[in-house]
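Subject: for your reference before the review

Hello V.,

The reviewers asked for a structural picture of the protein, and I figured it would be easier to keep everything in one thread rather than splitting it across files. Below is the amino acid sequence we used in the manuscript, unchanged from the supplementary table.
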Amino acid sequence: MNPILSLVAGSARLRCSPAVALGAPPSGGSTRSARLRCSLAVALVALAVAGCGQTSPSGGAAGTPVRAGKRLTIALLPKSKGNAYFVSCKNGAEKAARELGVDLVFDGPTDPDPAKQNEIVENWITLGVDAIAAACENKEGISTALRKARAKGVKVITYDADSLPDAREFFVNQATAQGIGYALMDEGARLCAQEGEFAVIIGSLTAANQVEWRNYIQECCAAKYPGMKMVAWRPCDDFKDKAQSECTTLLSAYPQLRLLISTTSLGVPGAAEAVKQAGKTGKVKVVGLGLPSENRRYVKEGVTDSVILWKTEDLGYLAVQAADALARGALKRGDRSFRAGALGTFDIQGDNIVLGKPFIFNKDNIDQFNF
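And here is what came back from the structure prediction:
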């Protein structure tokens, strides 16, 4: 039962005892007064029941915006809530929530886990949140739960990693998949003078966006850098220690390896530590998607040459701004642009709200950023 309905029904039970219903005077008050309170409580229950038949748990019928003046609850789902990348996204999301005057719920698996993401979404449907912004570990796996949320009237967007298109209304895209894959390959090729063997570290086998980025790395290599060859790729399950172990194995198995590319944030410092421990600083280049804060030491030491990313706090901020606008009816399919508070206006390409091009952090600029 809806929590509000439960509260009203409970009030009716307390105020409409069998004695009052039969006309016997209740202790401490008149029969007439008690009957009036009883009638009012029953009317409230009837109103609540009627309303429950007409609205979704999010406060509006499926496909319609929530009523004006309602304080929204927006739920932000990371791939793993302990990952510094998503902690940074959460910081931006909290800033947007404060500016908008909405309640923000942040929860996710401890480690990347598609099944756990589904459980969390199901719980949010039961709680009746107004909007969900999800970073999807597995696009097929989470789409059923997100479709269910939409059917209940919950507005759904994705960010960082997409679901299937029919499971959400917009994808807040940090950059295009091709743009990310090509940027990684272009930077790696530049560092290696467009020659040599390289290997790729991804987050997990179920991370569809990272598999897609790896595919674009291969495409870019084949199209632009015939002197380079990808000899292996390995998942690290978003653990620095596992990334380090995998890279140590790769360095031993491929003595001619000249480059390690990571598509996951924790893979970059893991790769750097493996190169450093192997005594191959400068001989094997390291580049990848990562946070400046996690890689600053390795960049300053010359182990990691560059880190490519977008401003993750901006990604979280944009996701909450878009979720709020969608829930209130201010963002609709067919819109060509979207104004997101203090960040300004962003292009909408189809159903993608695009944050922007990847940014390259290196020893010349990395101290300018604190995330």
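For the response letter, the relevant points are probably these. Residues 1-62 have pLDDT under 50 and may be disordered. Residues 338 and 346 are 5 Å apart (CA to CA).

Happy to draft the paragraph if you're swamped.

O.
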